[in-house]
């Protein structure tokens, strides 16, 4: 009998569900998780100008929910005809004296202060390509919340498969440069990059939320990215590319 492992899949949209929240905030986040199970009805994904746009067609999460979860104020705010857009800018800080890259997340809120869109910038999509990121987000609708362990469990068989090859180590070096740390773990080559948010923390005790870390694990033989684990504003996104990649047909 084949042993079925459970994949603990953390993403930017998942972590709030893993926290011990109470009251209306938790209920709204739980409703967003339920919406993911009917993805086509509740969400739309567009990739334009190297950005991935995730549209929330039936928004439920409030701007104050987002501030409560991230513990950060936005870097800047753009007024829109029917709402506004928050930006969180993360500047690379371990770039060895050279100008570093900036990862930008854009959150659009409608006139009722509800999250109606989330934009992922090109630099972030270099480490989490659009096809893999979309597949990861879609899989969350099939997950089960384990409140005791504060995790969202997704069975590997419920993960969609993609044919796109994962990112390559040489491309990552071209985009982000030499990592702040490099080491070997479990036979994989690990790169660690650090970023800092250009944003004010909600409270003095939240200053650490400004620091973001992206850990990338590569196959030392093929140089393909095997796993990506990152933490931005206290929220996590982790992708195991082996779980999402369509096996090559023998040939």
Automatic annotation (TrEMBL):
Name assigned to this protein:
Lipoprotein
Specify the species.
Methylocaldum marinum
